[in-house]
Amino acid sequence: MIFSKRFLEELLFTFCILSFSLAFSACNSSTNQITSQVNSTQSTQEQLQKILDTKELDSKQRYAIINQMANNLLSAEDYQGVILLLTNWVENNPDDMYNSYWLLMTAYSYLSLNAEPVAEYYFDRILQTCPDLLVKGNSIHFMCLQNLIQISKTPSHRIKYFNELINRFPDNVNTTELYLRLALEYENDNQWNQALKTCTLFLQQPDATTIQIPGEPDAYKNARHLIDFNNSSKDWTFESLPALEAAVKKAIRNYDWRALDKYKAKVNFFSMSWKQDEMDANSQEVFSMHDWMRGNRIRYSETLDETSNPNEAYLRTWGWSNYVSVWYLYFRKIDFPLDPDINGNWEWAGIYIGNKL
Fold first, then answer.
1. Residue 228: how many other CB atoms lie within 10 Å
2. Nearest-angstrom CA–CA distance, 76 and 250
3. What is the pTM of this model?
4. Which residues, other chains included, contact 218 with Cβ-Cβ below 8 Å and sequence gap of 6+?
5. Neighbours of 85 (CB within 10 A)
């Protein structure tokens, strides 16, 4: 699942302030002696720098010193000092095997300064230029991707990060959720063919119908509707709401059940009470208007319901049944940018049975 920004910040605080070591083999005795000496004498940053300048130090020993210096600055909340220390080190030591770790600390320091665009640059730089390392068993590249999808504002960038998460770390994430979020990013970037392909992948996941995705309560319904609508004839749509309203009213006046059956949407047309969900199995039953018009005197309001808006409209009708006489016919504006000839048209999408609650 996707880590929250708060979780990642807590992880930073833990491994930085408490000086978590990287997941590599234990440092040799000389490294331990240096660290012990630094801790016992409470050396200043200048003293640590002198030790760092010792040419006899190996890479792991240098890591221990740089890490201690960075943590000293972090404990004082001197994030600018951390940034200066680590960026200078990486620039002057491009072959350091721990540069991904130093740049990760740099990126988190920028997050602490609320400089998200700069943090994004460093997270992405790690992915592009540095080999992966582990922090307490967690991949640095994985953490970078988790941060990037949280802070990046550009759909094309987020598409890249979602794809990389799915392809590189399928066992670390909920791929069902990521397929849905990736499809939404493709929509935001107007890549509709890719959005359709990714929606199909989402629908093929075994938990697609049951997954609860934060911020997307109707994920399955919307994805299913998009795919089914794309594959349909779309020949029931009208260019405008007045045209649809006039056609439906005329069919009711003439008791023309065949016309009404023709006007009903052929994808996800529902008939339900106001309390039901339109994706409930019993709200999607196919039926003919003939069964309800025969022998009944159907009437309709002259104007659309006052709750209608530029994207949705309701027409109150009555006389359909002795049990529940009132039906509200629900008209909906079509949002389908993939087909400019259909996008913005109107459809009769369903029926709400009974008086409004």
1. 13
2. 77
3. 0.75
4. 279
5. 22
- Write down the residue that tokens 């004498």 correspond to: 41
Which band of pLDDT confidence, cut at 50, 70 and 90, is reported for residue 279?
low
Question: From CA 52, how far away is CA 105, in angstroms rounded?
Answer: 19
With beta carbons less than 8 A apart as the criterion, state whether 348 and 331 touch.
Answer: yes
Q: Are 304 and 266 in contact (CB under 8 A)?
A: no
**pLDDT by residue (tens digit) across 64-74?**
889 988 998 99
Pairwise CA distance, residues 95 & 85, whole Å: 17
Mean pLDDT confidence for 308-325: 95
Nearest to 174 by CA among 139, 143, 202: 202
Contact (Cβ atoms closer than 8 angstroms) between residue 227 and residue 200:
yes
Nearest to 242 by CA among 327, 331, 317, 334: 331
Interval 189-199 mean pLDDT: 95
Instruction: Tell me the residue type at 133.
Output: L
Tokens of 6: 């708060």
Assigned token pair, 13: 């605080």
- Residue 90 tokens read as 């990486």
Q: Tell me the pLDDT band of 4, cut-offs 50, 70 and 90.
A: very low
Separation CA 131–CA 127 (nearest Å) = 8
Identity of the amino acid at 188:
N
Q: Measured over all CA atoms, what is the biggest interatomic distance in the chain, rounded to whole angstroms?
A: 100
| Digit-coded pLDDT (tens) for 334-353 | 999 999 999 999 999 999 99
Per the listing, tokens 């990013």 go with 185
Euclidean distance between CA atoms 162 and 352, whole angstroms: 39
Helix (H) or strand (E) holding 229, with range, is helix 219-230
CA distance 267 to 17: 56
Residue type, 316: R
Q: Which two tokens stand for residue 269?
A: 């047309």
